[in-house]
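Batch manifest line 423
LIGAND: glycine
JOB: complex structure
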Amino acid sequence: MKLLVIGSGGREHAMAWKLAQSPKVQKVFVAPGNGGTATENGLENLSLSEFSQLIDFCKKEQIYLTVVGPEAPLAAGIVDAFQEAGLKIFGPLRAAAQLEASKDFAKQFMARHGLPTARYATFTDAREAKAYIDKQGAPIVIKADGLAAGKGVVVASTVAEAKAAIDLMLVQNRLGDAGARVVVEEFLEGEEASFIVMADGAHALPLATSQDHKRLQDGDRGPNTGGMGAYSPAPVVTPELHARVMREIIQPAIDGMAKDGTPYTGFLYAGLMIDKAGNPKTLEFNCRLGDPETQPIMLRLKSDLLALVEHALAGTLDRASAEWDRRPALGLVLAAAGYPDEPRKGDEITVLPKATEDCRVFHAGTRFDGKRVVTNGGRVLCVAALGDSLKMARTRAYETAGAIRFDGMQLRKDIGHRALKKD
Ligand code: AMP
Ligand code: GLY
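JOB STATUS: finished
ARTIFACT:
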């Protein structure tokens, strides 16, 4: 059978690669894909983006199933459109994707269903927002309500910084509609973890835990990015905490969505903050897999991803189980010059190591022009490696990355530092 994956990032390269491993799958199309999905065995890029064109293609090519990678098409209703056309697709409907597409929706949802999260208030008026900030003091967090491609959250350490963020969003309208409404949120201290599940409307199947590194520079300094590296599992999520997150956050979220008349089917990502005492709170929901978390997670997944997606679409995830490589995996992002503000495109990638059983280079912002692979976005590659220990996975990833060359390459040297400190 033939499948389609929507998206062009490292997450989509990893998903498509994993789906192509299924014995039932002949070919996985990736729309629009990247330089890695263009050259990987069993994958083929498709330069279509309009939903109607994709639907026509799926009908003509008899695509068995489509899996959606990023949030934007989900929030724009790709699942609704495919289902109306009678096509099989995995992801939340537009109404359910609001869990990510509107921070205010997500906060109201969490309050209504008793999920632990930071205190907050929502504003459209800058004066009222500033008065609230004066009352709360700093540090405080300002979030654009809508999708802002990772630029919508400002963790302000001073009241002045918080007010500047309000001006940027509510007065200067710099994020457009996405920032026309803001959530002002209590600053939470602790350690973050990514908790991702597959959901079928009623049940959730947890995937392996992971931890991302959001800041550009070593020691978690510098600007926020989409993520500079991730590893799985995240030891901060102990078995006890795992059970608690399922009980207090994930299952209530799935039940709440069903109760509200918008049952949730798809990947669901809870960004958690775990305080010193080990209590988890939800920072955000994403209606998709994480990037770069997916790359190490897919490397560890031993089960057939297609079979799991089929369980999710049939509503039988309670009868499914996912088998994981017991070895940890680590994914290291190689970013372009100028990332995250103004990534430079068009630098040639001169050396690309071949994949081995325990190390693969997933592409993100790359393009294959028929002869050469060149940079084409902020996060260019993600080197993902397995190891008998996290340390060994890290050594393998860094050794492989050491052979890769493109001008202006940026990478963090300390991916995995939190877990390695716990060893
Ligand atoms: P979000 O897109 O909501 O996950 O926010 C991006 C990043 O901002 C998170 O990964 C955290 O590092 C940080 N952040 C978001 N909300 C809070 C909060 N309430 N307290 C502290 N840090 C936060
Ligand atoms: N790596 C963070 C995210 O996918 O949202």
